[in-house]
Amino acid sequence: MAFFPTGYISWAALLRCAELTIENGYRYFGVLTIENYSSATDFVSPGDQNHSFYNAYTAYNPPPSSSIIFWPLPALTIKMLRTPISGVTLDAKDIQTRAALFEARK
Q1: What is the pTM of this model?
Q2: Residue 47's domain spans which residues?
Q3: Which residue spans within 1-106 are E strands per DSSP?
Q4: Is the pLDDT score of 48 beyond 50?
Q5: Cα distances (angstroms) measured from residue 65 to each of 50, 57, 58, 61
Q6: Quick one: average pLDDT of 64-84?
Q7: Alpha-carbon distances of 6 from 13, 52, 63, 74, rounded to whole Å
Q8: Burial class for 19, CB neighbours closer than 10 Å (0-12, 13-18, 19+)
Q9: DSSP 59-72
Q10: Which pairing describes strands 59-60 and 39-43: parallel, antiparallel, or unpaired?
Q11: Do both 50 and 94 map to the same domain?
């Protein structure tokens, strides 16, 4: 499954994992891997021949306004289980309950 968080496993990602776990008849899940399929591209306006450069730590956009577009796309691989493994698995029902309480407070 793929998500668009900010570098950490987002609450939305955990909630979606919980939903899928329960939909498939399981209660617990563990995150096995997080793959990074993020990408960045530069965009130069027509007629603008300035060049941008960037790496994982730096972005430089010289005038008149080249820009870098970043698409974060981590993908989580989870294992669904019917019984918990202490310290490893997350409780899908607990995550859904916490999400519902959070939504009720808004």
Answers
A1: 0.61
A2: 42-71
A3: 28-36, 39-43, 53-54, 59-60, 67-71, 74-81, 90-91
A4: no
A5: 8, 19, 16, 6
A6: 74
A7: 11, 23, 27, 9
A8: middle
A9: EE--TTT-EEEEE-
A10: unpaired
A11: no
